[in-house]
């Protein structure tokens, strides 16, 4: 339930979450809207070992609420509001994960495509952001200019356990720290376009690395340079050779030699998107609920669940009896 303090008697908005084991509230910096992430330990569909997750949008005025319209099935890895509070990014879906930008009406406005990612990090001024793949992913980082909707670069920082933007929004810090990892402790500093500008390794265990705090407004919001992201990760002016798929010696130089490179996943490119925003009090199905269940009354739904339970117990009993008969026929004593 969403209330307007100090009136705690009449809720502005109310949502019922089925099968919720954990719930996380993510308020916008302006306090005008809230994202509610609900997770379960078990996925009823059997598609994921890590359970289900659902993201719900609730506006502060109570006029708009409902599930965030996501265009790909799978878990919700991360969601974060921009510092302005006017938009938010959600990273979601099975590998390769998708990332989408939504406006204040929960309408999708830009699709960052798919990639190896599970984290979104906004720069303090809201101009730049990093879509990263940390933890069980090998440190992939995509640097984006969100104002221009342009990817500046894609680099890697393997083994990173901590990461953050500088207060000036011009640099990004990645570090490998103890006790998460005992070896290769150290940190790297990257420019906003993915260019590495500093690296320091430590022969001892490193416990913490952090930026020096700065007051709000101490640094101006500066746009990216015209050549930002050019030749990142390769020497200036040198074009990397694109290698094709391997061709056996006996097929080289023959017709039909060219082959497509094998890929385990189909990646999608970034693009502008359009979609309908959530309407007033729109009805969205929570995790574990079906459209059929939504139409039933509480009494009918209770009877349906009891009938399904009885059917499952009957099938289990039949399987047990069949197993016992098979054991007796084989001359084996049933336990």
Number of helices: 2
Structural class: mainly beta
Helix content: 10-25%
Cα-to-Cα separation, first versus last residue: 52 Å
Strand-residue proportion: 25-35%
Oligomeric composition of the shown chains: single chain
Tell me the series of helices and strands, N- to C-terminal. EEEEEEEEEEEEEEEEEHH
How would you describe the shape?
Answer: globular
| Order of strands in the sheet with most strands | 5-6-7-8-17
What is the radius of gyration computed over CA atoms, rounded to a whole number of angstroms?
A: 26 Å
**For the report, how would you describe the main beta sheet?**
5 strands, antiparallel
Overall pLDDT level: 85
Unreliably modeled segments = 234-242, 279-288
How many beta strands in the DSSP annotation?
A: 17
Overview of this structure, please?
- There is one protein chain.
- A five-stranded antiparallel beta sheet has the order 5-6-7-8-17, with no helix packed on it. Strands 1-2-3-4 form a four-stranded antiparallel beta sheet, with no helix packed on it. Strands 9-10-11-12 form a four-stranded antiparallel beta sheet, with no helix packed on it.
- It has helices at 291-295, 298-329; strands spanning 22-27, 33-39, 53-59, 65-67, 76-81, 87-92, 97-103, 108-115, 119-122, 128-133, 140-145, 150-156, 162-165, 171-176, 186-191, 196-201, 271-272.
- The chain has 335 residues and is mainly β.
- It is globular, with a radius of gyration of 26 Å.
- Strand 1 (22-27) and strand 2 (33-39) form a beta hairpin.
- The chain has two helices and 17 strands.
Topology:
Blueprint: E1 22-27, E2 33-39, E3 53-59, E4 65-67, E5 76-81, E6 87-92, E7 97-103, E8 108-115, E9 119-122, E10 128-133, E11 140-145, E12 150-156, E13 162-165, E14 171-176, E15 186-191, E16 196-201, E17 271-272, H1 291-295, H2 298-329
Antiparallel strand pairs: 1-2, 2-3, 3-4, 5-6, 6-7, 7-8, 8-17, 9-10, 10-11, 11-12, 13-14, 14-15, 15-16
